[in-house]
Structure of O-acetyl-ADP-ribose deacetylase:
Amino acid sequence: MTRITLVQGDITRQSVDAIVNAANSSLLGGGGVDGAIHRRGGPAILEECRKLRAGHYGKGLPTGQAVATTAGDLDARWVIHTVGPVHSTGEDRSELLASCYRESLRRADELGARTVAFPAVSTGIYGWPLDDGARIAVATVQEADTAVEEVRFVLFDERAYDAFARQLP
Ligand code: ADP
């Protein structure tokens, strides 16, 4: 059984096996969580991301997929980068958002990570409504077949924390 915990705070301050990054498909950095992770994690993460772009991910990381790198100076062993969908009112992209959580946990299992910190993927710059983003995040983790022991959702502010808290018993 995977334990789900909630923390209000900065994901780059977490001490876990793997920190999930709400990346963009370029893998070369951005704003929000992505910017914070690269700032605090230092150049080693970007260096490995560039290698991924030069190799298997020449066109970038597709939406809904996940890939792992070193965590650099963060208090974690790995950063798992996943690309959330941009929210759309014209098209239901929920399955892609669920895929981010599923694929990140699959990477975590490949690595042997037992504790994984997630941000609320897509709910920032990508515009996903917080309540729906929280619902998909929690439901997908609850349904996942994974050896990860703790999934820690790290929510930046009280509004996000409350949205996730409403999804838990
Ligand atoms: P996306 O592009 O997938 O929407 P963002 O990084 O813009 O990703 O935002 C995802 C969520 O993470 C938002 O709810 C945002 O408030 C939150 N967030 C931003 N910075 C941090 C941080 N340092 N730690 C945890 N959550 C953060």
Notes: Residues 10-12, 22, 31-34, 36, 84, 119-126, 154, 156, 160 surround adenosine-5'-diphosphate (CB under 6 Å).
